Amino acid sequence: MRKNFFLATLLASSASISLSAFAQIPPSSEPPGLEQQDSSHDQPYHSLYPPPLPTTPQPLSVNPAHLPDISEIPADQLPTMAPQQGAHPQENDWPVYGHDDHQSRFSPLKQITPENVAQLKRTFIYHTGSLVPKGKANKWAPETTPIKVGSSLYLCSATNDMMRVDATNGQEKWHFHSGEKYESIPYTAACKGVTYFTSSLVPEGQPCHNRIMEATLDERLIQVDADTGALCPMFGHDGQVNLMQGIGWSVPGFVAMTTPPPVINGVAVVNHEVLDGQRRWAPSGVIRGYDAESGKFVWAWDVNNPDDHHQPAQDKFYSRGTPNSWAAMTGDNELGLVYVPTGNSAVDYYSALRTDAENKVSSSVVALDVKTGSPRWVFQTVHKDVWDYDIGSQATLFDAHAPDGSIIPALIMPTKRGQTFILDRRTGKPLPNFPVVEKAAPSPGFVPGDTRAPTQPWSVAVPRLGFPKLREADMWGMSPLDQLFCRIKFRRAAYTGEFTPPRLDKPWIEYPGYNGGSDWGSMAYDPQTGILLANWNNLPMYDALVTRRQADHLGLVSIDSPSYKPGGGGAEGNGAQADTPYGIIVAPFWNQFTKMMCNQPPYGMITAINLKTHSVLWQRPLGTARANGPWGLPTGMPFTIGTPNNGGPIITAGGVAFVAATTDNLLHAIDMKSGKELWHDVLPGGGQTTPMTYAVNGRQYVAVMAGGHHFMGTPISDSLVVYALPETTH
Q1: Alpha-carbon Rg of the chain, whole angstroms?
Q2: DSSP conformation class of 462
Q3: In the predicted model, is pLDDT for residue 208 greater than 50?
Q4: Is 571 a residue whose pLDDT tops 80?
Q5: Is the predicted pLDDT of residue 192 greater than 70, yes or no?
Q6: Is residue 388 annotated as a catalytic residue, yes or no?
Q7: Distance between CA 361 and CA 384 in Å, rounded?
Q8: Which of 165, 226, 232, 154 is nearest to 193 (CA)?
Q9: In this structure, what are the phi and psi dihedrals at residue 5, rounded to the nearest 5 degrees?
Q10: H-assigned helices in 457-608
Q11: Strand partners, 440
Q12: Per mean pLDDT, which of 32-46, 563-577, 594-608 is the most reliable?
């Protein structure tokens, strides 16, 4: 009776919001891979929905453009890369997703200052034309940050259309239609940005000397001419490469790409998300490199086949279920490395079926050699992760100063735990003045055969983005009855602090939650002052494992099952975790009736950290109650309470930071010295993205995509909103 109450409570919680589904195939020490035989697919667990065999032909629907296979090119035959815009950006430009090759999210522009920022006015709104189709479930969350080169903005829509827009007035110069189908959208329709690439083979002034490249939700790599938007015929097959090659069995929406591919020494590196929690033997999380000039394949890093860097033969595929990387990657041309933030093996909340090779690289930053695809080093942020603490942030590069005055090429790696790791990017080892220590963690765990790691890594010299552990006495609500409800809920769950292990006999509280700390918005770093700026979340989760039979009874099936129903799950929440003994129920730790969290606010914060002194410069809640409230109803009150947020900040040399991200649908301007909010504007949709800034003819602009976010519950829009000071004031 008591277990049924827990299950009913969890289901009611998770049904109140748009969360995701998770998945299934057979347990074995060797996952189906290049050489795995069909006999490995005997089902030891009861399941109404057995998986297809590995030899099942790949449906044509996962290659919607019907692109032929691409050939290989040896790395030693790659042309020497021409200088790229991101290496030394023009002061007025923002040519890379994170502004520059270091992904600093810092602009040297200083026309906008704390003294005049309140005079910002909208100069234009550009509409991408990508909105939720009539009669279709809302999956929209564009998350786009434009880039700016010369006098043009380049951006992508939620469904991978690409556009060139006049940076001063929003006039559209060209619009490339990707032809992406709704069925190819995974959990979210998103395109975070595009890549600007300059060819060393095509002469200047010729078509496709400068190109715009994107990776799509339906697994294509596309290049168009930056001047005209026409496909580049010398790249791939008439401008496109099919990235489903070698992936094997899949269905539309199972794998997708949302981040701009970096180009390092001529190699365009692509990763992809694999829809969380569907099945243990989901499609591979393989990382691949392609010649940025021709689109030909260069190498693959396949975790369970580490010595084979080629494409699989026609009837083979990359090893299934390996950790995927869905975050934006960072390239390092000087060291010839790409820094890959990784997630978990397929199925987040059960680790017993993972291989040793997978356990070594999950929830890590992995430095891959861009000529070979081999790992140069690995730094792990969570050992044997069963909390969905995959790294969603992009690494930021900077030059650290050693005590002897020498320069150490360094890397900043934010995490969902609120731990920020500072590493030597040559070796992956923590910098001497930013040590990492292993602290005891709850172990061995409570799930048979699935032991937890006895220690976990902690970055002890960077202030943590987080609060103390939860206490029953601190449970929160709108009334004493709400507080009592949350206290009962707290007492009925297992909770021993961070890394509370999963259990079978009761729910457990996960804190920080999977959307805690820093996520895909990453951080901004000012190399002139050494200040790191981060907005982050404070949201616990309430989790429970359910038996395979219960998962079947609840209708938790993987996306490739004939019984899968769109909208029944996707990336964050309940899931089948097929091919394992257990499904998963995941919900916010909240009062599901009022939709208010059980921990007290703030739920969103912004923090400035001085890396030179290892101290917090300032910290405050981020986000107001104007569009938030109980039962999901907006209060209209402008009080700063700290709301959930997704998207990152930027810093300008003028001393002003900009961040949207919050569920109050505002763009915020913040004084970098004090943390005081100087100005804000109400956006036409949710601002779940990262802004950018640029200048044309001496006038500085700030741009933000106000596209909204289905999971965050903010209004959907196709509006890119651009601001500037009145022309008479600059």
Answers
A1: 24
A2: S
A3: yes
A4: no
A5: yes
A6: yes
A7: 10
A8: 154
A9: -65, -45
A10: 480-492, 548-553
A11: 455
A12: 594-608
* CA distances for 362 relative to 318, 346, 382, 571, 578, angstroms: 17, 10, 8, 18, 20
User: How far is the C-alpha of 57 from the C-alpha of 75, rounded, in Å?
Assistant: 30
The two tokens of residue 333 are 């041309």
Strands (E), 39-141: 106-107, 121-127
182 pLDDT higher than 80 = yes
pLDDT tens-digit series, residues 33-75: 333 323 333 445 555 556 677 678 898 899 999 999 999 999 9
Enter the pTM of the model: 0.94
Mean pLDDT across the stretch 397-409?
Answer: 93
Give the single-character DSSP code of 98.
T
Query: E strands of 464-559, at which residues?
Result: 508-510, 524-526, 531-537, 541-547
Report yes or no: 693 and 700 within 8 Å, Cβ to Cβ: yes
Query: What is the pLDDT, as a whole number, of residue 154?
Result: 99
Supply the pLDDT for residue 494: 98
Our CA angle for 78, 80, 85, nearest 5°, is 120
**Where are the extended beta strands (E) located within 97-228?**
106-107, 121-127, 147-149, 152-156, 162-166, 172-176, 195-198, 210-215, 220-225
Q: How many angstroms separate the CA atoms of 288 and 280, rounded? A: 22
Please count the CA atoms within 13 angstroms of the CA of 554 that sit on its side-chain side: 30
Q: Count CB neighbours of 320 within 10 A.
A: 29
Q: Which of 65, 75, 62 is nearest to 292 (CA)?
A: 75
Which secondary structure element, helix H or strand E, spans residue 585, and what is its range? strand 582-588
Amino acid at 84: Q
pLDDT tier, 2 (very low <50, low <70, confident <90, very high otherwise): very low
Q: What are the structure tokens assigned to 56, written together?
A: 């099942």
- C-beta of residue 143 within 8 angstroms of C-beta of residue 191: yes
Please check whether residue 381 is in contact with residue 421, taking contact to mean a CB–CB distance below 8 angstroms. yes
Instruction: Please state the φ and ψ torsions of residue 182, each to the nearest 5 degrees.
Output: -55, -35
Complete edge-to-edge strand list for the sheet that includes strand 152-156 = 147-149, 152-156, 162-166, 172-176
- Tokens, residue 565: 């129903």
User: For residue 243, what pLDDT is reported?
Assistant: 98
User: What gap in Å lies between CA 274 and CA 259, rounded to an integer?
Assistant: 13
* Per-residue tokens: 511: 């804190």
The single-letter code of the amino acid at 250 is S
Q: Whole-number mean pLDDT of the chain?
A: 92
> What is the rounded average pLDDT of the residues 329-336?
98
Give dist(CA 103, CA 276) in Å, integer: 27
Tokens of 80: 């020497």
- Could you tell me if 343 and 325 are in contact, meaning their C-beta atoms sit under 8 angstroms apart? yes
pLDDT at 355 exceeding the cut of 70? yes
Averaged pLDDT for residues 206-217: 98
What is the secondary structure of 222-285 as a DSSP string? EEEETTT--B-TTTTBTTEEETTTTT-S--TTSEE--SPPPEETTEEEE-BEE-TTSBTTPSP-
480 Cα distance to chain centroid: 38
SS3 5: helix
For residues 591 and 579, the answer to whether their CB atoms sit within 8 Å is no
- Find, among 185, 245, 151, 237, the residue nearest to 699 by Cα: 151
Cβ atoms of 599 and 644 closer than 8 Å: no
Q: Answer whether residue 474 shows pLDDT above 70.
A: yes
Name the active-site residue from 348, 369, 388, 681: 388
119, 678 contact by CB (below 8 A): no
Question: How many other CB atoms are found less than 10 A from the CB of residue 69?
Answer: 14
> What is the C-alpha to C-alpha distance for residues 208 and 511, in angstroms, rounded to an integer?
49
Largest Cα–Cα distance in the chain? 75
Q: Tell whether the model's pLDDT for residue 213 goes beyond 90.
A: yes
| Cα–Cα dist 86/198, whole Å | 11
Query: What percent of the chain is modeled with pLDDT above 70?
Result: 92
| Burial class of residue 68, CB neighbours in 10 A (0-12, 13-18, 19+) | exposed
Contact between residue 258 and residue 251 where contact means Cβ atoms under 8 Å apart: no
d(CA 318, CA 69) in angstroms, rounded, equals 15
CB-CB contact of 609 with 646 (8 Å): no
